[in-house]
Batch of 3 targets.
Target 1
Amino acid sequence: MPRENMTEWDNELYQKVDRYNLVPNLEQCLQCGKCTGNCPVAAMHPSYNPRQIVHDILAGDSDRILQSEEIWRCMWCANCYRVCPVDIHYPLLMMQLRYLALENGYGLKYVTPINKYAYRAFTGGLTFIPGQRGVDKIKGLREGIGVEPWPKVSEKAIAEYGAIFEQTGAVDWMKALDEVQAKGEEKPVKLSFMGGRLIDERYDTE
Amino acid sequence: MSAMTQNRVVKAHERIPEIPEKIFLFRSCTGSMEYPGTEHCVEFVLKKLGIEIIKDADQSCCSGYILTCSGYPAEPSLAVTARNLGMVEQRYGLDTYTFCNGCFGYNTELKHILDHHPEYKKMANDLIGQWGYHYEGNSHVYHVQELWYLLLDRIKEMVVRPLTGLRIASHYGCHYLAQQYGILDEGDLPTFHEEIYEALGATPVFFKERRMCCAYAVGRGFTHPENVVQPHLARKFDSAKEEGVELMTTTCPGCNVALDREQPKLAKRGFGPYDIPVIDIGQLIALALGAPIEEIGFNANSTPVEPVLKKLGFLND
């Protein structure tokens, strides 16, 4: 089991994860497991366990958690946060944990594909602008119900939206991930929390 | 117990003490592209209720969705939120109403961070100051569903197409119910959508997995492979079918994409078939209030709504 083999411990892992200081109360975690009991992903995939992930961040089990495939399964529904007796904002913890994993070269394949929509948002001011065929379809649908063919987004809005991403370094951050991937330097993720798991028979992966 | 937990559930008239004459309507990307009927119907109902709508082409996307995929760092989203909400405060002095749980949730969360972390508020204001914006944080963010519930008596009086006998179930959406800073109803067993259905003459249906997440899941096909999303959704729809749900409503175009567009794909995988049409609750109210059917925009749906309209006898209108 990975637990016994781990040698890399990092006493500052929690501080490294919570870089924006958005989850200052993580150490109050009672390990009660209500998060896991309310988690729809844990219900389908028992190796995903929010309680365990909080525990490992506090314990500093850096290796296991950063190369974990499980951390990419969170759906961000926030029901863990809703039921947490000490108000730990688990979704914001997960967002920041993923930043750290990405910067260590793990899990890029889960993020870079969606960035094409981010790049399109910089030039369109809207998220999830589809390709040309999709755009034509939307225009047809909108005209069919009697509204202008495309949502009104001003040039000013688009320019400022894009500039915010440029000036905060977000675009550079995204491009750096693309480069790591292009060089083939992305590190593989693996199931860190369970040797086996229940898989629906319709899917013959793994 | 922290202060935020104490104030989690708030009564409609406490949350919105004065019925607004004028609101700022926050455009949703998905709600105006994937399902343009959603935006159109929300405006139709607001006009029927006598509420003036202000929109602004300078508003951008809320930028929350890709943030939750960890697609970019948090600074741009904080600044974008400050820019959008600051613009509304400066130009109109109005509260912001969204018609997407995503826009509602991300704006609320990011606003909460800006309001409680002076260093981020300063960072955002320094950045947006170059275009003359300033975010103060003196307005509120609401979802239009809160207005529907607050003005339910008015809506009830205006029903011209009662949805008699239609078995409707609700999908409230996590990014509304999982909010910690003031929502209309209890996250475990919310019922205010069901009260809306009753006011429209329909029959509310409760099913076991009604509270289950839609699994749109921060980028299906990107962050989430099918084997995470599809069995999850199948469980939800199996439970809905068991209770004889004929129509499902959402308050989030994102949830609508997941629940509507995914049904044909589930059928291909051997789940279902379910054939439960999914529409926005604004479209449902617009339907009952007599909006022309071709303007409601049901043709954007992948799971056809026509069988329900036929059953109600509305297609020969």
Target 2
Amino acid sequence: MNSQSTPAWPDELFRALRALDVRQIAYVPDAGHKQLLNQALAEPSIEAIALTTEQEGVALAAGAWLGGQRAAVLMQSSGLGNCVNAIASITRACQFPLLMLITMRGEWGEGNPWQVPMGTALAPVLDTMGVHLNRLEDPGAAYATLHAAGTQCFAGGGPAALLISQRLIGAKAFVE
Amino acid sequence: MSGPLERRAVVAELLRERGDLLLVTGLGGTTWDAAAVADHDNNFYLWGGMGLAVATGLGLALAQPQRQVLVITGDGEMLMGMGSLATVANRGPTNLAIAVIDNERYGETGEQLTHTAGTTDLAAIALANGISDSREITDFDGVTTYRERLHAGGDSCFAAIKVQAGNPTMVLPPRDGIMVKYRFRAALGLGGV
């Protein structure tokens, strides 16, 4: 885990989501999203919605948009694999906005080899799906990167993913 | 055994005097059923995204808390998205109703049996997830009662409505999801993109 218990960048991501007027935050939790999620869960003007699988979030974001609200979907990189048909058949087919905040696994000191194949496949899969990749490695760029990605997405510029690097989050420790 | 009810009559009854009800339909037969009743600016038809009708309806219901939202989908579509019943129940929207038109078949692909033809009880699953008003409907009076319930609003409700096997004639709504999306938003007074 990160040696700094409360880094600033998750707060900056939350601030960017507020500035983007995101009102529904759907999530399958990941340790890298913990601080951001706690803020979302504590904010009464935001609906924080726990999902059973990430693809529900893709559909929920489409429904939110139909009803006039902006949503964001939080997931770990492995969860993107659960979303491929939803993104193709709903988001892309109907040109819905979709903003995903994806915490990376399978890179930078990954201790679980089962995470590596999906982590490696993530970027080419997103590219194939027509999802714009926005990598976040510099914690100082958190607000600007998410705000730029979301602005383009909600203006009709296509689905966007913020890829939060494992180097930034800190690789998960596996200790017996 | 499939159920006794005729699916088009069921959907027509659910949508009778629909007022300002917002409707999401699931991939397959229920999209044709809704179109057979009437195309409507407050309809959003899924032509893809199997298993995602209920999750779409939940996002809409949370965004439009003053409007009643109905999701009509099929048993095969619902079986693919059963986790979304847990998500709905734990979120607890007060304006979302779900109606599964359950013919115990994958009607679009050759009438292969779904698990509801076997041991699986969708209403019991919805109830166990925490949707306390979950029912199986096997007669038309039950459909009429459920129509009144879903128009009245209140806690989320679920019905598995047992209908006959067999596919009525396809009635196709607009297949351009981009246009239907714009039209749906415009009917709610929302702008473009």
Target 3
Amino acid sequence: MSVDVIVCVKTNPDLQMIRIKDRQPVLEAIPYKVGDLEKNALEAAMQLRDAAGGGTVTALTVAEGDRKVKETIKEALAMGADEAAIVSDPALVGADPAAVAQALAAAVKKIGTYDLLLFGEGSTDNYTGQVGARVAELLGLPQIGYARKISVTTDGVQCERSMDDMIETLAAPLPAVVTVVSEINEPRIPSLMNIMKAGKKPLQEWTPADLGLDAAALAPQRQIVSNLAEEQDRKHILFEGTAAEQADAFVNALLNEGVLGR
Amino acid sequence: MEKVDCIVVGGGLAGLSAAYGLASAGLEVMVLERGDYAGAKNVTGGRLYVSPIRELYPELWAEAPFERAVAREWITMMGDGAHTTFEVAADRFAGETPQSYTVLRARLDQWLAEKAGEKGAMVVPKMKVDELLRREGRVIGIRAGDDEIGADVTVIAEGVLGLLASGAGLRAEPAERDHAVGFKEVIELPPATIEDRWHLNPGEGAAHLFMGAVTKGMLGGGFLYTNKESISLGLVVGMAALKQDPDQGKCFSLLDEFKEMPQIRPLVAGGTVAEYSAHAIAEGGIAQVPRLYGDGYVLAGDTAGLSLNALVTVRGMDFAIASGYHAAQAVLAAKKAGDCSAAGLAGYEQSLRQSFVLKDLETARHIPRIIENPRLFTHYPQAVSRLLESVFTIGPQPSRRLVKTLWRGVRKDFLNVATLKDAWQMRKL
């Protein structure tokens, strides 16, 4: 058999490189990359494709901002996705999860044939964890969240699902939506050869109009009122004395703060 | 084996400049950069002298993400208990076509990578080249992980340590005598504060060098460059001197001590440290420039030892960009002639010899050995400051005539066997 998987991929700023200034993230000159859990989803998709002995993995993304998405999505192609599709438009800058789900659902319909839609359970930056579920609802598909294991047969998809104190095994008919957690696999690092090939793989670009969506439908339903880094008070305690005294005083201070000995 | 026209090892200014030139001419170019992005592993003091390279890629510089055009040069000579600062401002430093700009590499290199990408170069970050592939002495490509990629010419611009090039015997192993280590902090300050502290008009920049007590007598000095919203403050210390120092390995604490000096504290007051970085610097001058080309390869930038510390001017990035440019031109000519052997690439060294790169390094041939003289970092800054201190001092005793005061100081500190020997040596500067 063959299995066609669409992996919905969010690109986000490289969080490791972001500094906080005046409690706000400094995004200037920060490169974008494919989100962490989306890499797990891509890896899972490729493993399913390869296990089935055929099929297509399509990386689908919505450009929610000015993020050189065409370059960034190549990372998914370099990992081993067969094709990529991008929905981009200035109207999508600052899009909220509802709008992103609308755009993704419309693009999935446009792609047409697929067995499985894979998502990360949440994005690396905002982590609303909404988009997978929303897309499933919009398309009227069954959905399984937090999958840590996926297998596909002609009967449908089977997933192990991580819960706090148990593991659920669920099955659903195809096509279905599955969101994955990081423990599902170790995403591969693209080899140079695959990076070279990525540039030659098919890459489709759509505007919302191409998908029959009007800009009003994509207008954010919610407004971000404030987005501030947590403020941490520095204690500014200087321990003096011999090294042993300093160590004792330091450990005592940690005990008093409840950091140690809980 | 997959093959491209040209592989560039290293996404710094030399490599990217070469890639930009090659891709502009339509060649299939791949830049392999080990860091997370171009510039991630690169450090400058930093100032880029644009005057020497303005005519190479003239379309680029108008939109480059420079920080500030340097309008004022400051030099502080630090002795114990006294220091002297010169401030030099000239209209032409930062007029309509400024001669130099302060820069931050993360921004500058990413921008140049983008420009090379727009021309069609493929810039691949997070990709470490493990080996240069050779066949009968000729460099025929690279190996990265399990992948081998062939190229007609490999531009080796891997940085100052040149591990691949020295590993393959294309240049000598880096010697500590020819290298220094630079370490710096980027300290954020409001633009208006920067402009007040260095007497600048809005948008203008300053370069400020420090000689003397900052390195505790070791070869080197301090530097400070004003960026748009930050300053780059750091030290450069010779590796050989650092190794002999009993406190060796503690060079980072020198920077803390530097910041705490009474001359520096008010300059950095109120600032927030945003970044810390360090890098090796080639300071051996032309004597350590290796053979620049061979069958199937050229060396560019720091890998080729193209940098110059001339005490009051410190250069490397302009050499890197120019060497990348000339490397690209030479590779294009070689490809056109269908001869990428050493003979076909010989034009690279010829054009560098005709350009400022090797000419300036040749002119400065004796500088690396002259600046090894520790008196430059101990005696002279102290002596200059002591002399001027005496001129400005009014004590309880009746004062001497100014000329007499000056003469006494000059005779004591500048006219003795050691300093006369230094003067004789310095005629070669």
